[in-house]
Amino acid sequence: MKLKPRPRYLASLLLALALLLGLCFLGAPGAKADSPAVWDGSIDTSWYTADPGAGSFVITTPAQLKGLSYLVNANQAEWLALGLSTADPNYSETKRFVGTTITLGADIYLNATTGTEPGDTTQREWIPIGGGLDNSGVDPGALHSWGGTFDGAGHTVHNFYLDRPEGGRDGSRNLGFIGLVAHGGLVKNLTVTGFINADRSIGGVVGKNWGTTENCVNYATVTGHESKGVGGIVGANWFDLTYQITVPPVVRGCLNYGTVTTYYPTGLAGGITGDNEGVVERCGNYGTIRAGVTGTANVGGITGNIKNKPAYADGEAVRDCFNAGTIEGGQWTAGVVAQVQEGEAIILNCCNLGTVTGGGNLDYAGGILGKNQGGTVAITNCYNTGTITAVDNAGAIAGLILAGSTTTNLYYLEGSAPVAFATGDGVGTATATDETEADMKDPAFALQVSGLGRAFVPATDNYPVLRWQTTDTSTLTGLTITTPPTKTDYLAGESFDPAGMVVSASYSDGTSVSYIDYSYAPTGALALSDTAVTVSYQGLSATQPITVTWSPVTGVSLDKTTGTIDVGATTQLTATVAPQTASNKTVTWTSTNEAVATVSAGGLVTGVGGGEATITATTVEGGFQAGCLVTVNPHVTGVTLDKTTATLDVGDTTQLVATVAPENASNKTVTWSSSNQTVATVNASGLVTARAAGSALITATTQDGGFKATCLVSVGWGVSQTLLEKAKLVASDKGTNDQLGYPVAADGDTVLVGAYQADPDGVIMAGAAYIFVRTDSGWTQQAKLVVSGAAQEDYFGWSVALDGDTALVGAYRADPDGVNSAGAAYVFVRSGGVWTQQAKLTASDKAASDMFGYSVALEGDTALIGAYQADPDTLSSAGAAYVFTRSGGAWGEVQKLTASDKAAGDNFGHSVALCGDSAVIGAPYADPDGVTNAGAAYAFTCSGGVWTQQAKLVASDGAVDNHFGYSVALSEDTALVGVGNAAVDSLDAAGAAHVFTRSGSDWTQQAKLTASDKAADDRFGRSVALDGNTALIGAYQADPDGVSNAGAAYVFVRAGVDWSQHQKLTASAKRANDNFGGSVALSGEVAVIGATGVDPDSVSNAGAAYVFGPPVAVIGVTLDKTSATVLMGSAAQLTATVAPADAYNQSVTWSSSNEAVATVAANGLVSAVSIGEATITATTDDGGHTATCLVTVQADTRPKLMAEQAKFAASDPAYGDTLGYSVAVDGDTAVVGAPSWGTNPQIGAAYVFVRTEAGWVQQAKLIASDAAAQARFGKSVAIQGDTIMVGGAENTGGAVYVFTRSGEVWTEQLKLTGSDGASSRGFGASIAIQSDTALIGAYYANAGTVNGAGAVYVFTRSGGLWTEQQKFFASDAANDNRFGWSVALDGDTALIGSSEGLRDGMDDVGSAYIFTCLDGVWTQQQKLVAPAPAGYDYFGRSVALSGDTALIGVHQANEGWSNIAGAAYVFTRSGDVWSLEQKLTVPGSEYFGDSVALEGDTALIGAYYANAGTVNNAGAAYLFTRTAGVWTEQQTLSASDKAQADRFGWSVALDGDTALIAASHADVDGVVNAGAAYIFGPVVPVTGVTLDKTSTTLAVGGTEQLTATIAPEDASNKTVTWTSSNESVATVSASGLVSALAVGEATITATTDDGHFTASCAVTVSLGIPLTLQPGWNLVAAGPGTTFPGVLFGWNGSTFASTPSPAAFQGYWTKAAGEQTVELVTVSGPHTAGLLTGWNLIGNPMATTATLTLPAGRTAFYYDALLSRYVSTTSLTPGQGAWVKGTAGGETVTFTAAP
């Protein structure tokens, strides 16, 4: 038992020496090894996971220390993920590492330097060991605590940093280096340095202590923002109420050197503990402890507060402590204890040597105690030498002390305070003695202040020091039990209870003490033989007699009689021995079948194997028994599935059922998985969903034993499957008329596309073929196949075939061996992604015009090649086909095939198909049954290497010129034959295809396929492909959606023997004459369709191929960021990536967990709303997969560079003027264009504004001397010095007017136009002027022979006259490029924007051009373009130039959050070369870059459609600065009077530190779209704020206006925020109006947005205003709740009636026995009350005099009690009642507060 402990051990001696030497006994924190290892953020738990559950560990690295934090804070999932078990003794849901010791083996550096400020992003943040944060840095809700021993072993943890500001982030409580120490937990011998800033229960070493913290030192800065404790060592030293622990929490032997500050008005701050319920002993403070704000904070050198301990516990003592630090700023401030809040507190053996200063406003300051707020306090053996000051109550010992408290043996230095005890009803009985400095330094004073104890010892020529601070040389001489324990009689088996026992130790110096760490024996169960208890302390002992008697056992019972557990699981049985007082409660445990279940000596039952066992508890005394029947479920032995194979169509589902054996297995849990989630997924219950064609293995795995069972799932397209366009394939080097896509072939992830009219190496129509492959990122070109030595018009690529890594390409017009158009075919093979030619194939009997290679087919090592104009047996163009085979890489011809009934002109070999040992060959010009050109196809089979004709296939309805066999396809026993010229339903050349099937060797027609929307000349069947039950048929001249010859392809699916049209495929961007469907290919889920007429990137007939495939299911989603910080007023773009890349539904839905903090748009744009955190989630529409990003919204603390100084508006604003369409500024003069001004439409004007001492004023309005409608004068403006140029550009002309200033008068000097007249259209659209040179853009001007390309005119000034010197334009001028849309000039360099036109096949991409001047001649230096140009970007919409830096606006760039987001590009020049430096964007903005300005390293960029705060589309401008070559956004500028659609940022200008920004569509004084412009200049910072009142008193219901004055008067940002410290007493509006709500006190504070300066007003709210009642009857009024001494009588129109409480605005009679004062509860007005006919009693319950508005001719009469008569009146004072007469219904009286 530890009763009032007094340890005397080595650590105390070391600590004492440290104090005397001014050093930390644990090692000075600055003493570190060379190049210490600083924490890199890594986590090392291997030291624990290598030996989990061990009892002790040594930590030597930062990562290991972080690993300890991770383990203590880990949730169950994180603990298990480390491979650990929840049965680990160090694991618990609440307390971790109970009974385990962690020892530091070295100093630890968590950061390289010590943080000193909040928000320091250079510091790595520490997550405490236990307490208020989990491992993700948020409040875990359920707290984990440190339950073991953490031994710093004299080492220091350096530079820990934790910033959790007030309300700013989740988790700001119970924080310190260690967050929470559990009861039984211990932290010792540790020094910390660093910085912590959080809300409540925060300490340098421990945030909240339920256990023991000893011998620790803090150097860290500790700052708190909430009402709970903030302490140098411990934030809150509290009892653990959860478990009703009776042992007090202890802080012992600790020192604080750090600064501790509370910023909460009612905060608790202490050098050792902020708040205390337990014991603080042998501690000292050297740090500054302070309140950072005005309020009612408690600030103490040792503790800020002592409050009531739980009724069942001991505690509440501060003893043997000293303060040598500065204590200041609290309402209750003290050197030792700031406040005793409640309970019975003890302050024993303490001294204060530091300065204590109160914080004003009814403050209480004391050397030992600030204020005895409640309960009682016993202050004993204490002294004070520090200076104590306060505005109101300063006491050398205490500021306020209550009656019932005791003061014993207290001393203070004379003059340290005016009095010993300043105030309180205990002052009369409190005692203390003032002493001189000499007396207090006399050695005898040490004994005097120690009283009867041993607290203090003398110090040489100094005040006494506490004994623990020195080496004690006295010896122990005796031990005495001075007070026996409360209980001395026991039953055998009970334990000794020392409660009430007092043990005293005597020493050789004559002193004695009774609070010591004694021990006693026996400590366990008492036996009959025990007659006394021996108390021991440091080798001495004393005895206490006791009496022990025996209580026999009468029985035993168990808490369970039956139970079921799994193998490996446990259950606890508890035996209860009767009676409860039995002396021997020992039981033994046994199991009837230990192969089934075992039982420990403590009754813990463990399942071993399946079966039943009875667990029995037997009492040692008497042999009484109780049993429990335990059933144990066995282990799993296997698992099976109800299906081992399954065939599904895409979209189908099937339920798999797993059966676990045996049936009564303990754990039947299985997990499901798929080997290919792209093909098939499986949920947790075994439901399989088919996602895409292919196969996947579904596996069920038992959790117990890992047994597996599988089902092979095969997924097909299915009749319901829809094909989607996946890719458009075009050649990387596409050329005009290449005809890519005429033939296509596909095999798996590879596609082969021919381009027979390509011109490789300039050889016209030699032809080429392209290989495309599918990767995770989509389809890409892998290779271009060409033939070396190809000749003109070989038509290589006319036909193609593909199988695996082999490609076959026909060149039917090649001239092998010089034989004209004999034809050839080429074999290419792939190895490692590289394609090489393997062979050139030609017919052995080649002849001119055979057209060998017109068709090709490939299967494995067999190639079939058609030569449809071969002349077998001299039959002209009867046609033939040749079979080649490959052996070891060598190809050879093996057979020539011809039709058995061949005839001249049949064109056999026009089409060929291969599948295994079968082939089909088309002869579209054959004449079956004499039908001319009806066409036929021939089936061949191969046996023993010999091919023979098996059948001749003809259409059942063949007709003349049908060309049956024009295309063929083959899949196993099914052949598909196209009849592209067939007439169907009288529709000529609508086309058809016939399906034939084989049974044995017989082929029969199964179906005739036609398009459901067939039309004449569609040519359906010109191309065909077949794969299993799916057919793909091209109709290359179909007119889908009315688009002539755009083409289509049709998918047919067979179910049984029936074929039906499943889908019609067309290109997503179809155009006339694309000829989509000219060729088709099928391979599994891939369909490829050629379209030779497509014009990719405007390259005519270059051709393309389209890849279609089934929808691919989504399997997941990721975000480009998992965490993001967004500043208030800003936005961030999140991008979701859906997997796989070709998933058919890429749509995601965005959501925010806290829209009060951050919202997210449908495109992933996150906008900050308020400070805090929100989780942004992207959820896939398909599958509901999610990905999240934690967004932290922070205040924008970046320094503001500019502030609004003035607003320009025309002196004569009119509707639609659009003032601000253009702007320019030079020094103190600005010019603003208004091109739409004028009673005649768009005459235009320009306004000149100048800066004077009184501010900016309009100096002139400029109008062209020849003003005319539509001139749009003011479309552009430029200024230099006393010269202004104003442009008036319109498409058919345009001019620029030059104005000059003399004095303050502007006059038009001349009008400039292009020398080439009509060719200068748009002249004046843009202007740049510098010195005597001006550039004038004419964006519609002719550029040489190119009409409307745009040009720029150069004018120079000489002798005051401007003359045209040159006209220049782009070297690649093109129609409608808008060259000259924007211009910029700096020295000899010009930058010209050319924002529109067609470039690289894309509309309005835009570009910009650099021109330089040499010897007066301007020449183009470079063309600048965006690195990734896109259509409708409008690159060059705005330009700016400064030295070697160019800024170019791209106002419609698509940036993800909007297709009109906009961007700006910065280019820099090195030598003569310009290169891109950086791309600038602002997430969430729109039309960013529509205007730009540049000066040096500062850029200003307008975004006239951006949101400005909460005002949508008001517009904004963004200020960027460059540092070390990097541009960063510094500030967002918006108008102070912003409104929707103002278009702020339409134009911008920069000159030095002045910015001019226009809002061209702003409404001015109600005039719609009149336009305005705003001047911004350098920010004038706020230096302070004051209030017109610092204190005021209000009655409940009253109001008062407070006024804040910002200094200096011209500060840029005068915004203040108003707050109340107690809104239940008084609230304050955003404008400073204070409203009194309830009796009490509140501090109203005004805080500046800039600098956060504060000023406060103390508001006292009383119940109401006083109303004096005269003896006798009084006529009164009051608000509800007012209490009167007598009965109130109201008037109901006919009689008087009593009432318990008054109603507002009614009058009442009440009688007073004598003169009395009533506190009125008041209400606010004005108020209108109805009058009854006759007399009415009314009254004024307001806090001010009320003026009465009465019916005409009426007056009111109040009763003057002093005069005893009625007096007429038209106003009533507060609380005054009166009579008013009503003469008719509906009359009223109105009460209005008098001025």
Give a written overview of the molecule:
The chain has 1795 residues and is mostly beta strands. The chain is 3% helix and 48% strand. It has six helices and 161 strands. The protein has a 26-stranded parallel beta sheet that branches. β91 and β92 form a beta hairpin.
Number of strands: 161
Instruction: Classify the secondary structure makeup into a structural class.
Output: mainly beta
Percent strand: over 45%
What's the average pLDDT?
Answer: 90
Alpha carbon gap, first and last residue: 73 Å
- Continuous helix count: 6
Largest sheet: 26 strands, parallel
Shape: globular
Low-confidence stretches: 1-33
* Gyration radius, rounded: 48 Å
Helix content: under 10%
Q: Which key features would you list for this structure?
A:
161 strands, 1795 residues, disordered N terminus, mainly beta, 6 helices, 26-stranded parallel sheet, 11-stranded parallel sheet
Short summary of the structure?
This protein is an all-beta fold and 1795 residues long.
Topology of helices and strands:
Blueprint: H1 10-21, H2 46-49, E1 56-59, H3 62-73, H4 76-81, E2 95-96, E3 101-104, E4 108-109, E5 145-146, E6 149-151, E7 156-163, E8 173-175, E9 178-181, E10 186-188, E11 191-198, E12 200-203, E13 206-209, E14 212-214, E15 217-218, E16 221-224, E17 229-231, E18 234-237, E19 250-252, E20 255-256, E21 260-262, E22 268-270, E23 273-276, E24 279-281, E25 284-285, E26 289-291, E27 298-300, E28 317-319, E29 322-323, E30 327-328, E31 332-334, E32 337-340, E33 344-348, E34 351-352, E35 356-357, E36 364-366, E37 369-372, E38 376-384, E39 388-389, E40 393-400, E41 406-413, E42 419-423, E43 433-435, H5 437-441, H6 443-450, E44 456-459, E45 462-466, E46 476-483, E47 489-491, E48 502-507, E49 512-513, E50 519-521, E51 532-537, E52 540-545, E53 547-549, E54 555-558, E55 562-566, E56 570-572, E57 575-578, E58 587-591, E59 597-599, E60 604-607, E61 611-619, E62 625-633, E63 638-641, E64 645-649, E65 653-655, E66 658-661, E67 670-674, E68 680-682, E69 687-690, E70 694-702, E71 708-716, E72 724-729, E73 744-747, E74 750-755, ...
Parallel strand pairs: 1-3, 2-5, 3-6, 4-7, 6-10, 7-11, 8-12, 9-13, 10-14, 11-15, 11-16, 12-17, 13-18, 14-19, 15-20, 16-21, 17-22, 18-23, 19-24, 20-25, 21-26, 22-27, 24-28, 25-29, 26-30, 27-31, 28-33, 29-34, 30-35, 31-36, 32-37, 33-38, 34-38, 35-39, 36-40, 37-40, 38-41, 40-42, 41-43, 47-53, ...
Antiparallel strand pairs: 44-45, 46-48, 48-49, 50-51, 51-52, 54-57, 56-60, 58-61, 59-60, 61-62, 63-66, 65-69, 67-70, 68-69, 70-71, 72-99, 73-74, 74-75, 75-76, 77-78, 78-79, 79-80, 81-82, 82-83, 83-84, 85-86, 86-87, 87-88, 89-90, 90-91, 91-92, 93-94, 94-95, 95-96, 97-98, 98-99, 100-103, 102-106, 104-107, 105-106, ...
